[in-house]
Design goal:
CATH topology of one domain: Ribosomal Protein L4, Chain: A
Largest sheet: 5 strands, mixed
Order of helices and strands: EHHEHEHEHEH
Number of helices: 6
């Protein structure tokens, strides 16, 4: 099997005058916050399933006066200021999010960490060993992203390769780019990604949380050796 890689240093659709690390940081925080909404929940005094009757009468027992068993200062009672479920949304302008993603991709290209896999057979691989051997020829190590078209057989083969995050072009996102050491595109995936950068893909294919938002469109896991 002939596997060739071409280093990608420039994409016409990725137009970034200057890499804005501030935008990258803001988009990264936003994505991580929205991916993990707070679900912890404690019960208040009113929600604890205990009797609301006083433990004992107010006077005449010689003990300190007490209220119901559900009082917060008693064992098993309610919690006064405990966590409640909810999502603290971080709002970020669409242009800032788009610039953040293109800046993150440009950073990888400037460091020669983006390559195009020149192999028509790769997308049809169904065995993990085949896909793993092909990735070894890239020269990259550590955690990385492999971008492939939607629905190709190799997606199943790549699931078991340690450190590899498999994405389709429309699901490229700042979070995975920041946490990865390299990015590998297949030739077909690169063409789809370029169309996506130009905003030519259907709006229904966009991911509202982590996808790339084209300017005219509506909003909408590297190999360990």
């Amino acid at each position: 099997m002939a596997v060739k890689y071409e280093t990608l240093t420039e994409v016409p659709e990725v137009v970034v005058d200057k890499i804005n690390y501030g935008h990258i940081a803001a988009a990264y925080r936003r994505q991580r916050r929205h991916a993990h909404p707070r679900t912890a929940k404690t019960k208040t005094k009113a929600e604890v399933d205990l009797s609301k009757q006083k433990w004992f009468r107010q006077k005449g027992t010689g003990r300190a006066r007490q209220g119901p068993k559900s009082s917060p200062h008693l064992t098993g009672g309610g919690v006064v200021f405990g966590p409640l479920p909810g999502l603290k949304e971080i709002k970020l302008n669409k242009k800032v999010r788009r610039d953040a993603l293109l800046s993150a991709l440009k950073h990888h290209m400037d460091h020669e960490a983006v390559k195009v896999l020149k192999s028509a057979e790769f997308e049809g691989f169904v065995r993990t060993k085949q896909a793993y051997d092909a990735l070894l020829h890239s020269g990259f190590t550590g955690k990385g992203i492999v971008v492939i078209p939607r629905g190709v057989p190799v997606a199943r083969a790549l699931r078991n390769v340690a450190g590899i995050v498999v994405l389709t072009p429309e699901r490229l996102n700042v979070g995975d780019l920041v946490e990865s050491n390299f990015v590998i595109f297949t030739e077909n995936a690169l063409e789809q990604a370029r169309s996506h950068f130009r905003g030519e893909l259907a709006v229904g294919e966009l991911d509202e949380t982590v996808g790339i938002e084209p300017a005219d469109a509506d909003e909408g896991g590297a190999t360990d050796e």
